[in-house]
Write a structure and sequence with these properties.
Distance between the termini: 65 Å
Number of helices: 20
Shape: elongated
Structural class: mainly alpha
Helix content: 55-70%
Strand content: under 5%
Number of strands: 2
Length: about 375
Amino acid sequence: MSVTTEPGLLGPQITLFDHALRLHQRDPDAVLPRDGEPYPDDERYRSRTRPEIDPRLVGADVAAILDRHLSRPDAPPSELAGALQGVFVPIHRNEHIEAAALRADRRRVRQAGHWLVRHGTDRDVVTVGLALLATDRTEGDIPLIRTIGLLSNSFGALAAEALQRRHRGGSEALLWLAERVSGWGRVYVVEALCRFGAGNSRAWLLRHACDGDFLDGYFAGKVATAAHLHEAITGADVDDDLIDHTGRLLKAMADCGGMSTTLEHYPPAPIVLATHADHLGRQAPTVARYLDAAVIADHLTAKPPQRSGCTVEQRDRIVRQYLAALQQPDWCDAVRAGLDLNGDFAAWFAENVAARLNLRAFADPAG
């Protein structure tokens, strides 16, 4: 494991790349716990205050530092890392930083970007390195980019941007990363996969993109559109994973106003809803399937039909389909056996969803 000494600090500091790699190697197929936090630079980073800057000028000071450094052919990347200390760096694509990279010699940009990502012990320094690599298309940097991208809350946005530009191996690397990130990092990576045009990732997007987080609402509609959910769920090759994930997509789109595409603005919504409800009735009952379907039915019932892209007749028919499955005795038994009915969530669900739908599984046996 490489260790570097940072100017102005006492003692060695682990690089953020090595931190990500070490955590990844503990469980190579899993999401990093807590997005890899705390990072090695956490104490220093948390003590900083973000300066008040005109939004139009964010990144301009970083660009000026890059212009000075990259114009000097013999200046080592470690010198750039020192110059960036204490400078505010945006974690998303920035036009000032990108312009500075495009003004410079491409070899110098790649060299600096690679070094900063691989050896940086400060997240702002690593972010600048990623921003530089995001202006390039070199396939050889893919393993470096996807590894640092595992620390996705800080680096997911630029890692996704960089991988999206690498057409031959970028899609595969984005999919690898999507399977190992959560939270905001998952939003960045899944949105990049959708922009990529789905392609080889379509099967994954249709079955695994949503992980149940509230943030699913930011990309659920994009997944449904890019992966052609309408064609998949009405086709012949429909499996339980596709049906279950369709439920998660519909649930997210039902209640993501202000985040992204809602059912109201998803033209195939009536057909996809009806088809999902039809498939649901033939599935084995589980708590997750029950809860997803009940939330969807509740949304359809509680709001005007146009909010779900349906006519009154379509909405009423779809709700009846969902309730026909939810009121079956084996579905009621499954939720009673698998859900802690005395828990806080069940109490909330019973009061706010089950009561409106008159669901038998939550009815008082004594009543």
